[in-house]
Amino acid sequence: MLTFAALLFLYFLPTIVAHNKASFVPIFLVNFFLGWTVVGWIAALMWALVEPGPARVLVQPVPAAGRFCCGCGAPAPSAWCSNCGRRLA
Ligand SMILES: [Zn+2]
What we know:
Elements (H helix, E strand, L loop, with lengths): L1 H10 L1 H5 L6 H11 L3 H13 L39
Helix pairs in contact: 3-4
Bound molecules: zinc ion.
């Protein structure tokens, strides 16, 4: 029973590697239907490994006042730029 579980784990290793990837479903289908051919299993594993992880969204915090220094371009929520010291108009 342990051997069967180990073989199952090994067979679906490409799917496990791809669990948080964008192409999870197609990788799973290749793994499921073509995994028994060793070439299909290796292809699914390679695909899962080269696939980039979940897309990260970079959020740039914008000051509430929405003002930027005209000298250096840094966000400046107050009357003075904390980055270069220029007074804001
Ligand atoms: Zn500045």
